[in-house]
Amino acid sequence: MTRRRRVTLTELMIVAACLGILASIAIPLYANAQARARIEQAQADLQMLALGVRQYADHMGTLPLALTVLMRPAVNDRNQSAGPFIATVPAPPLGGTPPWGAYAYMSRGDGTFLVTAAGDGTTITLP
To answer: Which of 10, 43, 85, 122 is least surrounded by Cβ atoms within 10 Å, i.e. has the fewest?
Structure first.
């Protein structure tokens, strides 16, 4: 006569508790990784936009009025054409708490500029 081994309720509860502990560790790590990825994407986008603004300013001798100006060729006072300086203004990362808003650009009167993004409880400003 062979005896069949059965899983007891205690063993099932131990396995469920272990899975619960693993999930409570893994889920926040995954959420943090997603937030870091969104922040890194925003930083890369802002660096690309800042580079386009600098190239435009070097060519034209003045800062652009808006980021959309960078998507068209520009002719300076020496009749030299250059550009477009960026292909498109990128969309901000999706998601986040709070969600990411559109990238902001501001030129200052002293010849400097800022590009800014905010989301995931973080504000990034370049240069």
So the answer is: 10
